[in-house]
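Reading a protein record of the kind used here takes little practice once its layout is understood. An example of such a record is reproduced below.
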Amino acid sequence: MRLLISNDDGIRSPLLHALVAALLSAGHDLFVVAPLQEQSWTGASKCRHRPVASARTDHGLGAPTWTVDGTPADCVNIALAHLLPGGVAAVDGVVTGINLGLNTTLGFIGASGTIAAAWEGALHGLPSMACSQDLTYDEWHALTGGQPLDSLPATRATIAASAAHAARLAAELLPATGPGRFVVHNLNFPKPCTAASAVVRTVPARVIVPGLFSPAADDGTHRFVFSDVIDRSPPDLVTDKSAVAAGHISHSVLDYTRL
């Protein structure tokens, strides 16, 4: 297949590079259009109030690559309209990620730039898939040049296994979905992930995410903080959250025609 690849962690993300390497090894032709800087938690927002620059670049990915100094949704929209030779017809689908951290539950799916980039592809009639990886920030900092961790070899093995699963699942899910379906396949990989990790069909967990901002400081400002979720999922649901916690790969089908 010919695929457009994007993410929300930016062009330098080692998880993006792992995904691209796995897809190329599987024989796919790729175009990469990723944010110039990290754009997590931007959802489907677009840069309406300022010009957005794109640039052809080379980050050693082995595929035609551009950066966009905007959101993930900007990246896919601009790529399909202006960057890819032939526009939308140049690709058979969109794959985004691999995202740092999980994009599970109703509380977080809507905020994800990685999922929003895939959704932008679906809005253009393309079958789309978003990929996310359970990782700690300590592991992320080690991967991106911080202090080495004893667990780093295991972390790299997990990322490689997840990327291989993503390449395999893209070849299965995107052709089966076909064009014009307004569907995003949301994949979340556990830690550890191995070649033997099972894929489980799930639905997003129904969670409440209270208190994502700190109390007002003396200057009246609030700061973003992570918060524990309150899971209100019925016990009979096989959720993305529970599947990953059990060590499985979660596959949720986000069908936007059912909203």
